[in-house]
Design brief:
single chain, about 240 residues, mainly beta, Immunoglobulin-like, 14-stranded mixed beta sheet, Carb-bd_dom_fam9, Carbohydrate-binding family 9-like protein
């Protein structure tokens, strides 16, 4: 009981101190759908049109250079995400599975399916639809000492990107890119139920990296900062059917 209380207290302290002065809902109710979804990066299905977008906020107290939002739904096989990432100059270089995508502009998903913050799944995509997927051990609950299982691949993972602009062409003015993702429940083996049951709760967070550390332009925004490898800041994903 004492351990649970300490965990709750620290979680609230981190989330409240990092919300950048904004009120943030710390749970997301994920609605079930039986609508067939084609993973093509396009928001043409009725379920996507019916879900309100949730906007990211900056990880630091600064004005966002590029806005982003997300939507989530689920069916009997997949947890599904849809993202919009505003970007006036879309850049992406890496093309190999499990390249170090965090060194460039990416969208990141972190999933803790069993509410054990010391282990979770990490997924990343760039605008070329290059994928990085890892299983992470985080014994100290921060990014100081993390171990990543690089040989793990999420079998059956589906994703697609739809670009409004031209990748790697700074001479034109881009609008941004859409990312659509389907993560198979069969690969999230840490979950209590596969697929989830009505009312099941996972923990998760989402982070966008715009710009790069190399050229000093990096800006991170998230659903619940600080996100990334700070699992105590993750919010609740509530499955509703």
């Amino acid at each position: 009981m004492k351990t649970k209380f300490i965990y709750f207290f620290l979680t609230q302290m981190i989330i409240n101190s990092c919300a950048v002065g904004q009120e943030r809902q710390q749970s997301y109710t994920c609605i079930f759908t039986d609508v067939a979804i084609k993973i093509d990066g396009k928001q043409h299905e009725s379920i996507w049109k019916s879900i309100d977008p949730i906007w990211f906020i900056p990880n630091e107290k600064e004005k966002l250079k590029a806005k982003s939002w997300f939507k989530i739904t689920w069916n009997s096989e997949y947890l599904l995400f849809y993202f919009w990432l505003e970007d006036k100059d879309i850049q992406a270089q890496m093309t190999n599975r499990d390249d170090h995508l965090w060194l460039e502009e990416v969208m990141e998903i972190f999933i803790d399916a069993d509410s054990n913050p010391k282990t979770y799944y990490e997924f990343e995509w760039n605008a070329l639809n290059t994928i990085l997927d890892l299983y992470v051990l985080n014994p100290n609950l921060n990014r100081d000492v993390i171990r990543q299982w690089w040989n793990w691949d999420c079998e059956g993972l589906l994703s697609a990107v739809s670009v409004q602009g031209t990748i790697n062409n700074s001479k034109d003015n881009d609008k941004g890119w859409f990312l659509e993702v389907a993560i198979p429940f069969s690969e999230i083996q840490s979950a209590e139920n596969i697929p989830p049951k009505n009312g099941d709760i996972w923990r998760f967070d989402l982070t966008r990296r715009e710009g790069t550390e190399e050229n000093g332009t990096l800006q991170k925004s998230s659903w619940l900062p600080p996100s990334t490898h700070f699992p105590m800041s993750y919010g609740k994903l509530i499955f509703n059917k």
